[in-house]
């Protein structure tokens, strides 16, 4: 998956469509995996947006060690949430968000692109509906 300014919206739509078709095997039977709730995905977005606001405020192209550390903590939170909820795990696997965070490095531009991708994921998830 190549995340760019031109592809992130289409990628987000494909991810949500694929998630709605995800299956798992339980006792030899195929069952659908519950789609991630909008509240779960918005919780991750809230952390990302907090970091984004601080990045925009800093005004530099290269992230400070503090901001880079907060981005690494974001990765820890994603992994923790994935461990708690199978739908989050499947969401992170298909969206490849953890890999995107890893690749962002200390680049302001890359992190801002990832936040736009996450916003698109939230939008397509909300558009899809199906929350219980």
UniProtKB/TrEMBL annotation:
The answer to whether keyword RNA-binding applies is yes
What UniProt keywords apply to this chain's record, in alphabetical order?
Antiviral defense, RNA-binding
Superkingdom is Bacteria
**Which InterPro entries would you find in this protein's record?**
CRISPR-assoc_prot_Csm2_III-A
Name the Gene Ontology biological process terms: defense response to virus
GO-annotated molecular function: RNA binding
Protein's UniProt keywords contain RNA-binding: yes
What the record says about family reads:
Belongs to the CRISPR-associated Csm2 family.
Q: Which NCBIfam families match?
A: cas_TM1810_Csm2
Q: What does this protein do?
A: This subunit may be involved in monitoring complementarity of crRNA and target RNA.
Q: Spell out the protein name for this chain.
A: CRISPR system Cms protein Csm2
Report the source organism: [Ruminococcus] lactaris
**Lineage of origin:** Bacteria, Bacillati, Bacillota, Clostridia, Lachnospirales
Q: Which gene encodes it?
A: csm2
């Amino acid at each position: 998956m190549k995340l760019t300014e031109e592809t992130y919206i289409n990628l987000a739509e494909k991810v949500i469509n694929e998630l709605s078709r995800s299956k798992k095997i339980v006792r030899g039977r195929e069952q659908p995996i519950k789609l991630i709730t909008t509240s779960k995905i918005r919780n991750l977005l809230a952390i990302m947006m907090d970091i984004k606001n601080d990045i925009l405020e800093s005004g530099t192209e290269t992230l400070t060690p503090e901001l880079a550390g907060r981005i690494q903590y974001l990765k820890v939170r994603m992994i923790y949430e994935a461990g708690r909820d199978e739908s989050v795990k499947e969401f992170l696997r298909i969206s490849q968000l953890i890999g995107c965070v890893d690749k962002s490095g200390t680049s302001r531009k890359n992190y801002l692109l990832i936040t736009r991708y996450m916003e698109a994921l939230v939008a397509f998830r909300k558009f899809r509906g199906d929350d219980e």
